[in-house]
Model the fold of this input.
Amino acid sequence: MIADKVEAAPVRAHVERLIELGMTKAEIARAAGVNRGRITLLLTGYPGNREVDYTETSGAERIMAVDCSTIELESPWKAQASCSTETAQIIATQYGAAEPLDLFYPPTELDPETAELYHLAAVALCDSCPVAAQCDDYAAARPETFGIWAGVDRQETT
Ligand code: SF4
Done:
């Protein structure tokens, strides 16, 4: 136990469960009032595959309080999406990522060449995704301002 921190493992397990139930990382972050990068860090750990052991208490409590059943899940199409976190991480590894990362929310410190490679890989996945139209409508309506949705980098559109 570290002051103002709690064990990260149960929080990570809760996030993974919420994702299984259909929430995106952005939705979880928004519902918990934490930075989206914090959700990514919990899931993928520090560079070099070093897992997060402890996480800040108040954010952890808010994440644990996120209940998928109390949030309007108006997007059953997500069950058919081609971009599960697992898929995105596997593809990133195939494209040469040294550690698991989410192609659709890539780290900001990537060199331009690698960033472009990952971007193209994500767009290719979107191109063959059966629910791209629903995804595009969903991202535009919220609007999403981070990540790649339906082949479009939403940061570039804001
Ligand atoms: S269009 Fe792309 S971002 Fe949207 S659900 Fe499909 S794979 Fe995911």
In short: The helical segments are 9-20, 25-32, 36-44, 57-65, 85-94, 112-127, 132-141. The chain has two domains: 5-70, 76-153.
